[in-house]
Structures are given as structure tokens and as C-alpha cells.
Amino acid sequence: YLKQMNKKTPMAVVFADGQTIEGYIEWYDRNTIKLNRDNAPNLLIYKANIKYIYKLDETPDPEEEDKKKKK
């Protein structure tokens, strides 16, 4: 997370229920991350509710995700 925090890299957070939100990571600790968003409230997110996180310029491939789950 440190590199993305320092560069304020736009990130997408996908929750376990499939919902996706976008923003940049301001800080994190053992259990949570704080996601800052433009024109929307900032969020404190429990890591236990996160399915995965990716950089917005690196859109994930759904087939690749399925392969990772099967391993």
C-alpha cells in the first residue's frame, strides 16, 4: 500500500458482495484502509470485507480471477 499511498494512485476496491468503489488510499492499519474519493465521502473500510484491490489503470481480467480461485 505504501507506494500507492505516496503516489496517490487511483485504486478500485471490490467488496465480497461484488460492489466496486474507486479512490486512493490515504492510510491503512492492520484491519482497515481509508479510501479518499473525489466528490464523495471518504470511507474507512474493513479489510475483511474486501475481495480484492487493483489499480484503475490495470483493469482485472475476470477469467484470470477465476483461475486464481481454483488453485
Describe the 3D structure.
The protein has 71 residues and is of the alpha+beta class. The chain has helices at 2-7, 62-70; strands at 11-15, 20-28, 32-36, 43-46, 50-55. Strands 4-3-2-1-5 form a five-stranded antiparallel sheet. Strand 3 and strand 4 (43-46) form a beta hairpin. The longest helix is centred in the last third of the chain and has 9 residues, at 62-70. It is globular and about 30 Å long. The chain starts with a helix and ends with a helix.
Which tags fit this structure?
71 residues; 2 helices; 21% helix; globular; alpha+beta; five-stranded antiparallel sheet
Q: What is the element layout, followed by pairings?
A:
Layout lengths: L1 H6 L3 E5 L4 E9 L3 E5 L6 E4 L3 E6 L6 H9 L1
Antiparallel strand pairs: 1-2, 1-5, 2-3, 3-4
In short:
The protein is of the alpha+beta class and 71 residues long. The chain has 2 helices and 5 strands.
What coarse outline follows from CA principal-axis ratios?
globular
| Rg, nearest Å | 12 Å
Helix content: 10-25%
Determine the mean pLDDT. Answer: 85
**CA distance, first residue to last residue:** 25 Å
Q: Uncertain regions: pLDDT < 50 for 5+ in a row?
A: none
